[in-house]
Design a protein that fits this description.
Blueprint lengths: L5 E3 H14 L5 H12 L2 E3 L13 E6 L4 E8 L10 E3 L3 H6 L7 E6 L2 E11 L7
Parallel strand pairs: 1-2, 4-5
Antiparallel strand pairs: 3-4, 3-7, 6-7
C-alpha cells in the first residue's frame, strides 16, 4: 500500500490550479496521476509539514534495489533544470514522491518497470510561502 500524501491547503489548491493550467498532450498522464494523489491526500497545517515533500523541497531519495542515492529539488515547471537537479512538479519522479515524508517508500513507474524509492531526507529550509 502506498502511504497517503499530505499537503497544506495552499499547496493543494496551487497544485489543482497548476494541473488545470498545464495539462497538455505531453503530460496528461502525470497530471492525472497528480490529480489522483490530490484526491486521496490529507490536508494538514503548515507546521506539521516539516519533513513532507512539497514544492521547492530538497529531497534525497534512494533507489532501494540499486542502493543509489540522488538529491533533487522539486520546482515549478518554469524553473525546471535537469542540470541543477531541479525537477518539475509535473515530472513523473516528482508526482511519485510529492506529499510523502522522510522514510516513506514509494513505487515509481518507469517504462522498464517499477522502481522502489525510499525518501531518505527532506529539507524544507528554503521553502517560502506567501
Amino acid at each position: 500500500m502506498k502511504p497517503i500524501p499530505t499537503f497544506c491547503k495552499a499547496d493543494y489548491q496551487f497544485l489543482r490550479e497548476l494541473i488545470l493550467k498545464n495539462k497538455n498532450e505531453t503530460n496528461t498522464k502525470e497530471a492525472n496521476q497528480l490529480s489522483q494523489e490530490l484526491d486521496r491526500a490529507v490536508i494538514s497545517k503548515e507546521s506539521d509539514l516539516n519533513s513532507v515533500i512539497r514544492i521547492h523541497s530538497f529531497v534525497t531519495i534512494e533507489d532501494v534495489k540499486a542502493g543509489k542515492q540522488m538529491k533533487i529539488q522539486i520546482v515549478l515547471p518554469s524553473e525546471a533544470d535537469i542540470k541543477q537537479s531541479k525537477i518539475s512538479i509535473l515530472a513523473p519522479l516528482s508526482v511519485a514522491i510529492i506529499g510523502f515524508k522522510e522514510n516513506d517508500q514509494v513505487d515509481w513507474e518507469l517504462p522498464a518497470g517499477i522502481k522502489t524509492l525510499k525518501i531518505v531526507a527532506v529539507d524544507n529550509t528554503e521553502v517560502h510561502h506567501s
